[in-house]
């Protein structure tokens, strides 16, 4: 899995990070296609070489093709991303970045995140910066992201609300939990750039890694005596984490069955799971004389194996059950509840070393919420995925702090989350 580390010691902006990723080898056409999926042909994207304080860098230019409205609401941006034909990781990362930014702006202005009207960052070029960066990360195969100390700047900056102190209030809000410094005069970190780092990266110094590529992205100003650039370093992390130890012994119970009414199989699987199986599944096979059949497999704790073996014999027509010792490896996981149309849906999050590896809404919770709302389950499932992304649960992103150990899916209770290594 490729790891990317961002050097933001001279500052960071969306276009600077995009330029650095393009300089590192991200495909410009792939970035353009992703942005066009969201904003059609409303922007143009180009990249070219420049120098900043004598240092070579790539300058990404994202320009609206026509006059653009000064702002869009978070609700509008969220709908644009949801409707776009994007790879799921690109959509999830971009949605999470804007959700984090909306939360920060809402806190600064004292309003709910859904009511936030983005100003500078709601413009087409800023939307293109965020989607472009997420598309570039996807194209480069970046699975995890880190960033060091961030230079924020000092002084004042003109914004939609008037003159603001630097670092801007939203930037400071987004910098919670991060190592920062002034680093110079002027605005060195923009809300878009800080939102990308805050959402997608963990705070770390350059980790042990085998460097593969380096990209340098330029800001629009060439400041004498200070290279106005953001750098990215891509490579393979050093093998600092040993192979996971088995989380415990396990048993596989198997039986070949060719004469059970197929309508009975759902009830058999459900009964085995209720009897304590860790998992149970069917695989279609062809037996002797070409007869169609199924292999029933049950994964279980060794202590439960005798009882489950008896259940297999009682529930199916098999004459025998194979018993194989096994070892079970499992990623730690977290249960997090997200809000879907005013009610909770449990989402299972697998993680390792503080990085999100899998995000899956619990389908029983989705089905229950869909029934309560009188809506199709696939619509509620899509909203649960988007809500998880908006909460920062994105593959490759840092695991949000706070959840407790995981077990079964949590009972409905908005805002609760659980973490563990089950």
Structure description:
By secondary structure, this protein is of the alpha+beta class. It has a five-stranded mixed beta sheet with strand order 12-6-1-14-13. Strands 16-17-15-18 form a four-stranded antiparallel beta sheet, with helices on one face. The chain is 31% helix and 33% strand. 41% of the residues are buried. It has helices at 14-23, 28-39, 74-83, 88-109, 124-139, 169-174, 191-200, 265-274, 305-315, 363-373, 377-390, and strands at 2-7, 43-52, 55-64, 72-73, 117-118, 142-147, 150-151, 153-159, 162-166, 180-181, 186-187, 202-203, 209-218, 229-237, 248-257, 279-286, 292-300, 322-328, 333-340, 343-352, 355-361, 417-420. The longest helix is centred in the N-terminal third of the chain and has 22 residues, at 88-109. Helix 2 (28-39) packs across helix 5 (124-139) and helix 10 packs across helix 11. The chain is elongated. It has eleven helices and 22 strands. A hairpin with a 2-residue loop joins strand 19 (333-340) and strand 20 (343-352).
């Amino acid at each position: 899995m490729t790891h990317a580390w961002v050097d933001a010691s001279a500052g960071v902006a969306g276009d600077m990070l995009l330029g650095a990723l393009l300089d590192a080898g991200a495909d410009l056409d792939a970035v353009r296609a992703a942005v066009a999926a969201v904003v059609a042909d409303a922007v143009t994207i180009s990249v070219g070489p420049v120098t900043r304080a004598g240092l070579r860098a790539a300058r990404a230019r994202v320009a609206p093709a026509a006059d653009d409205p000064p702002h869009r609401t978070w609700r509008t941006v969220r709908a644009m991303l949801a409707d776009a034909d994007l790879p799921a990781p690109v959509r999830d990362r971009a949605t999470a970045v804007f959700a984090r930014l909306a939360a920060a702006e809402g806190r600064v202005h004292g309003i709910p995140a859904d009511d936030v009207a983005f100003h500078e960052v709601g413009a087409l070029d800023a939307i293109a910066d965020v989607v472009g960066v997420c598309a570039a990360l996807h194209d480069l195969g970046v699975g995890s992201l880190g960033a060091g100390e961030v230079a924020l700047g000092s002084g004042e900056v003109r914004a939609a609300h008037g003159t603001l102190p630097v670092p801007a209030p939203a930037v400071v809000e987004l910098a919670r939990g991060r190592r920062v410094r002034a680093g110079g005069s002027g605005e060195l970190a923009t809300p878009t750039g800080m939102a990308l780092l805050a959402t997608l990266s963990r705070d770390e110094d350059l980790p042990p890694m085998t460097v593969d590529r380096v990209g340098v992205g330029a800001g629009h100003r060439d400041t004498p005596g200070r290279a106005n650039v953001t750098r990215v370093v891509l490579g393979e992390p050093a093998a600092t984490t040993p192979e996971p130890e088995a989380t415990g012994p396990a048993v596989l119970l198997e039986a070949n069955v060719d004469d059970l009414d197929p309508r009975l199989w759902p009830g058999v699987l459900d009964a085995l799971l209720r009897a304590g199986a860790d998992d149970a599944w069917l695989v279609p096979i062809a037996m002797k004389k070409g007869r169609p059949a199924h292999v029933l497999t049950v994964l279980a704790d060794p202590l439960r194996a005798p009882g489950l073996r008896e259940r297999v014999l009682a529930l199916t027509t098999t004459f025998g059950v194979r018993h194989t010792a096994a070892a079970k490896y499992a990623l730690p996981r977290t249960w997090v509840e997200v809000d879907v149309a005013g009610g909770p849906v449990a989402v299972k999050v697998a993680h390792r070393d503080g990085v999100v590896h899998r995000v899956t809404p619990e389908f029983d919770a989705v089905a229950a919420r869909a029934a309560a709302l009188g809506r199709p389950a696939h619509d509620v499932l899509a909203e649960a995925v988007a809500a998880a992304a908006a909460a920062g649960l994105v593959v490759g992103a840092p695991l949000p702090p706070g959840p407790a150990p995981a077990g079964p899916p949590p009972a409905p209770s908005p805002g609760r989350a659980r973490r563990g290594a089950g």
